[in-house]
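Hey,

Quick one before I head out. I ran the complex with phenylalanine overnight. Inputs first:
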Amino acid sequence: MLPNDVTHEELVVRRGRRSGITIAVAVHSTALGSALGGCRIWHYPTWSDGVADALRLSEAMTAKAAIAGLAHGGGKTVAVLPPRTVLDGARRRALLLDVGDAVESLDGRYATGPDVGTGPADMAVVGERTGRVFCRPTDAGGGGDSSPATAEGVLAALEVLAGRLGVPRGFAGLRVAVAGLGHVGTLVVRGLAAAGAQLVVADVNPARRVVADELGAIWTDPDAVLTADVDVLVPAALGGQLTAELVGRLRCRAVAGPANNQLATEPVADLLHAAGIVWAPDYLVSAGGIVGVAAREIDGLGPQEAQDRVRSIGVTLDMLLDEAAERDESPHHTAGRMIRERMSAVSV
Ligand code: PHE
């Protein structure tokens, strides 16, 4: 999606000196400004799979920042846990200090924050080694969790989609399937339930069923949720779920959610378009986290102004979908053009 000559600027891979765990910090681009992207702590079959994920995720962050109109680029940190590793408190702390050192080594070209497997308390520990960290707990002087802002951006995007699908205002009666009840997925489900949506939800962790039971949502398994008969499918788990094979089985009219890198391969965007399914690009729908962080912790705005900026994701999506419809193309291509224009307007 990004121009071919926009390759990664920097990649730091090191085994943490305290934890012994491989850490990859990928800086994809600083063309528009310093790179932003969270720190993921996750299991991978091999360390190089984790490095590859850091490369893909950091590129997605460049797209995210650019389409959201931020003067920032994209980066990402992945702490690569070998399969089945369980971190006890001491080793987790050691890993987070190692992450802080790795981030600090980039001298401000990249700043981190929470992501899958991390939260504000972890950022406070990272912050013992570097100032280049967002979303520390509010009582530690940070902006707190980024998940509410990310969820707010998703809800703004879903509201626009609901309108375009003929559901007048709000979500009453909208049928939505949510795949993944993590930090962001759970908040999205709560917002939708409060506004009267009909929900089918799933998570790989069976314990998350409590959320479904509390909100009166139908609980199903992680495969079945993808092909539920609904208006909108919301991918809110890990990436790569939209495969060519899945497209033929989808029963939704639109797909929009916070999971990063949803397309298993780029041509899936065209398959979705050909199937008449609107795909709202994940790098726009999920941008609320960094938009909120930039508004609160970089630009110093108050909560209301920050929320307005996050909700403008809906306005951008509406514009994008208009242009995509006019050109009869996947919104992925429309978005790609917008991003390339923004990036080529500055000298790379
Ligand atoms: N983890 C989220 C993302 O990568 C949001 C985030 C990024 C929050 C960077 C803080 C800092 O999009």
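The chain has a mean pLDDT of 95.

Talk tomorrow,
K.
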